[in-house]
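pasting N-dimethylarginine dimethylaminohydrolase for the record, 298 residues
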Amino acid sequence: MRPGQPRHYLMCRPTYFTVSYEINPWMDRRTPVDTPLAVAQWERLRDTYRDLGHVVETVEPVAGLPDMVYAANGATVVDGLVYSARFTHPERAPEGPAYLKWFADHGYVTHLAEHVNEGEGDLLVAGDVVLAGTGFRTDRAAHAEAAALWGREVVTLELVDPRFYHLDTALTVLRGNDGGAPPDGAHPALAGGGVDVAYFPPAFSPAAQEVLRERFPDALLATEEDAVVLGLNAVSDGTHVVHAPRAERFAAALRERGYETLGVDTSELLRGGGGAKCCTLEIREPAGAHATHLGSAS
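structre below
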């Protein structure tokens, strides 16, 4: 297995994971949740990252916040600047302060959001821009707020299918989410550096689809079969892509592009509407500052 570019992730053990309310189409309170299985799947995901050479830190779970396992929603970190989450639904509102406190306690510069946004669920770094979802969970006003904070272009993409209520359920940044180099022997679409993405077109409005076609003409287009198992809720380090095992066509297409694929089962966590990416918040630090905030991973 080729080495990937080392990454720094924040995760939250699903100690209190259950489905006690319904705020997305994936949630069904009538179906019992196997919390020990969810924990075991989460541990396998965490261990996969560590086996790949990535640093994984954890935030303490809070009783009464079953969705806190979806760490990607807790904040967005670009150039070491932390933009807090401000959740749409009151059931998740306390998660934002819990994640912001972790970052403040670990010495990061934090910004308390004025506008509703759900972290990396809707804010994905793609090269020198940030792709920003809206339509269900994040206000357009948050896009301008994020652009001002990070000094980067933020590209608005409207989501229209409630099954894909966050951008990270409909689009994966495969390369360029922190400036990684293309893998050796890569697909021609990856030649010359730059950004590589995969997405499911019907999840987006016609205008957003046009933006994506113009910016990413060589993007990998996912099928509905892979999208509906949250195959696009994947995590890439530029060489390896961790994804839902049931997204078989997606995995085959990734391998054709030169990526190494690792299927990690997060099916129990899917009951809450999240997969590998939802469980993984990437901490992007300024160049040369990677080790500044690293505490002991747990």
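The two ends are 25 Å apart (CA to CA).
Helices lie at 35-51, 95-105, 140-150, 206-215, 224-227, 248-256.
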